[in-house]
Amino acid sequence: MGKAIGWVLAAALATVAGAGSAQTYPTKPVKVVVPQATGGATDVFARYVAQKLAIAWGQPVVVENKAGAAGVIGTEAVAKAPADGYTLLFTYAGSQAVNQSLYARLPFDSVKDFATITPVATTPFFLVVGATSPVQNFRDLVARAKAGPGKVTYATSGNGSINQLLSESLNVEAGIRMTHIPYKGIAAALTDVISGQVDNAFAAVPSALQLVKGGKLRAIAVSSAKRNGSMPDVPTIAEMGYPGFNVSPWWGFLAPAGTPKAVVDKVQADIVKVVQAPEAQAFFRDQGADVYTTTPEEFQKVLEADVVHWAKVVKASGAKLD
């Protein structure tokens, strides 16, 4: 009996300690790890929210890019970090939900080794070509790919990236065969699409929007079921004859598993307050994204469902990484 009471008392004290730490959190700088390169949507979103959180918390919120291995390097760093709320992960579905199926072995479990906090936004991907490309529209691209199997090339931010899975899904859906040219980040990939060294690429709307508006890229389709408000003239792939094509991934915050729930709940509440503000809504809208927040528990269910969904896409595409 005494031992049982001791365990209950210990649990109660841990809960009180967690609540106490949440009331004062943060008392020192917070690090946000981005497992992708600078310049992409993940980096842009992370830096915006981090800046606002730093103001709200009165503590530095430092964004650290740890790119490599389709997001595995940075994600592993957070999985193995102290579960105290001072190291957070800002990532997107294309890394967190896809890698679990893409790699035969991972040094972490995408679900079990993390505490979900909240997503902040969703955004579709534009299918883009260079502004001087002879490809004028989506149907033109498909026709050229069918006429010369393997001759049309597509750029991605790396092997196993969601950019690659989108293009491979298009290969399957349209009955075409385009050749994959991987890069170490979407910025480098788009540079070569602009120059014409590579024919096309899928890029998250925030990564491509200004290049499209600036006349360097031409958006010929969007991956979501509905047209994107930032460029409503760009048709969806679904309306081009492929009704099942609908991809609009989330971007969001996670922490190492075991982070006190009271801290997770405080971080979630503060992030939601930041991104639901009118100024933030306008920022994300200008980036072609929609603000999207949930409770930690709801985010957990979304992540679990996405892991199952992308496992099917990965299997159909045949993509695998060691």
TrEMBL record:
The keyword Magnesium appears for this protein: no
Protein name: Tripartite tricarboxylate transporter substrate binding protein
Coiled coil, from the record: none
Annotated signal sequence range: 1-22
Statement: the UniProt record of this protein carries the keyword Amino-acid biosynthesis: no
Domain of life: Bacteria
Keywords annotated in UniProt: Signal
UniProt similarity note: Belongs to the UPF0065 (bug) family.
